[in-house]
Design goal:
It is a single-pass membrane protein. The chain has two domains: 82 residues, no CATH class; 264 residues, Spore Coat Polysaccharide Biosynthesis Protein SpsA, Chain A (Alpha-Beta Complex). Helix content is 18%, strand content 31%. It contains six helices and 20 strands. Strands 8, 9, 10, 11, 12, 13, 15, 18 and 19 form a nine-stranded mixed sheet that branches. It is globular and about 70 Å long. The structure holds 2-acetamido-2-deoxy-beta-D-glucopyranose (5 copies). The site of one 2-acetamido-2-deoxy-beta-D-glucopyranose has 3 residues, from loops.
């Protein structure tokens, strides 16, 4: 039977049933009983991601849907209808080959503008054609960068005013952070981004603001995917090993201290070229997926899908996470010098400079 899914955030203790109200194209409305599939990963918070599956009857031919606890006594004019998007398609004509979903939501304290420009320009060189970001609010310089890339058409900003509805936690540790919902609703955001891009992009890359999935043997990510997909035709989820490049350690030859960049707040990731070795078995991963094969995703791995998962060999491609690992003193001898990002210097630096000049025009350098 045909069904429409509504991606929701719901109270995991809900005891009353949910109903779907369809707005039919010919006459009036139709109410059906919803089936709710809650995500198993919620980090202990009271609210979590859930898929509300609404069965449709063939006679209805609906264009809009709503979800309610009250199936019999509603005022149709008051029902908040959502338009039904994303109807299943079989063709393969996607406007984009590779879209990046930034999977953590921006918060007020985030003003890491320089690292954001560097990440975007790096991804563009690697074959990314579109980026989607979920915004609550952020610092003034980062906001300027977001508007720049939005005007350019590269970035889609999805408004995510989660604090108007719930008290979101700012991380994952429930016991310390309290609140209603894990990390600003990150899991719902990631699922939303996959569904939103299902028929717009051949592949979707899910990673955080401070991460880049970097190819080590190819010059762009599409070549990596092409090669892997040729060898493993049924793979729909590609997992990449995460590697931390601590911002507490910098290149000792002082390359890439471009004076132009001083006006831009944030981390200059080109300075941080020491990688912490991954001990066996503890690496987390980030992923590139075929969005049409995904039913449910969690942060580090997919929960429900069609097809197979592949762990991409790290020497072919790995995640660079440029961050403060809060590990205290790191002994230099254990770290691996990894200058891969410098291989892109010639193309990358002028592009970053151009964006800095255009966005920071009122500053004197
Ligand atoms: C369903 O509705 C759409 C849009 O209103 C219309 O184009 C289509 O012909 C309808 N299909 C049927 C089977 O009624
Ligand atoms: C996606 O990649 C294929 C194969 O390389 C290419 O033929 C196609 O033009 C690309 N599509 C877009 C939108 O760039
Ligand atoms: C992000 O959201 C905040 C709060 O709603 C808004 O003020 C700001 O303009 C948004 N930023 C962008 C780039 O859309
Ligand atoms: C994918 O293909 C491999 C080898 O061709 C096979 O071993 C595996 O069972 C397949 N997995 C799925 C989920 O079809
Ligand atoms: C990459 O790693 C694999 C498995 O560890 C190894 O077989 C292969 O030789 C490595 N390739 C390179 C170029 O180092």
């Amino acid at each position: 039977m045909k069904a429409t899914q509504v991606l929701t955030i719901e109270d995991r203790n809900r005891r009353i049933p949910l109903y779907c109200i369809f707005c039919c194209s010919r006459d009036g409305v139709e109410v059906t009983v919803a089936k709710v599939v809650q995500h198993s990963i919620h980090y202990g918070y009271r609210f979590g991601a859930a898929h509300v599956i609404c069965p449709e009857t063939p006679s209805c031919n609906s264009t809009h849907v709503s979800v309610t606890t009250n199936p019999s006594d509603f005022d149709i004019a008051e029902v908040p209808f959502l338009s039904i998007e994303n109807e299943e398609r079989r063709d393969e004509n996607f406007p984009y080959n590779l879209t990046v979903c930034i999977s953590n939501v921006l918060g007020a304290e985030n003003n890491n503008a320089l690292q954001f420009i560097q990440m975007v320009e790096m991804y563009k060189l690697l074959g990314v054609q579109k980026m989607v970001i979920y915004n609550t609010t952020c610092g003034p310089d980062l906001r300027r960068m977001l508007h720049y890339y939005q005007d350019e058409g590269f970035l889609e900003i999805v408004m995510w005013p989660i604090s108007n509805f719930l008290v979101p936690a700012t991380g994952w540790k429930f016991k310390e952070l309290k609140g209603d919902l894990h990390n600003y609703g990150q899991i719902t955001v990631m699922n939303d981004c996959i569904y939103r891009n299902m028929y717009r992009s051949r592949y979707v890359l899910l990673a955080d603001m401070d991460q880049i999935i970097m190819p080590y043997e190819h010059t762009n990510l599409l070549l990596v995917l092409q090669e892997l997909q040729k060898q493993h035709t049924n793979v729909t989820v590609f997992l990449f090993e995460n590697n931390i490049f601590p911002t507490t350690l910098s290149d000792q030859r002082n390359r890439f201290y471009d004076p132009v960049w001083k006006a831009v707040p944030g981390v200059n990731m080109l300075k941080h070229i020491y990688r912490i070795p991954v001990s066996d078995g503890i690496a987390s991963t980030k992923m590139i997926v075929n969005p049409r094969a995904i039913e449910q995703t969690a942060v580090f791995t997919v929960l429900k899908m069609y097809g197979a998962t592949l762990h991409v060999p790290p020497n072919m491609s790995r995640v660079m996470q440029i961050t403060d690992p809060e590990l205290g003193d790191l002994s230099m001898e254990r770290l691996i010098l990894d200058e891969r990002i410098w291989d892109f210097e010639e193309l990358l630096i002028p592009r970053i400079n151009e964006v800095v000049h255009k966005t920071m025009a009122n500053y004197s350098f």
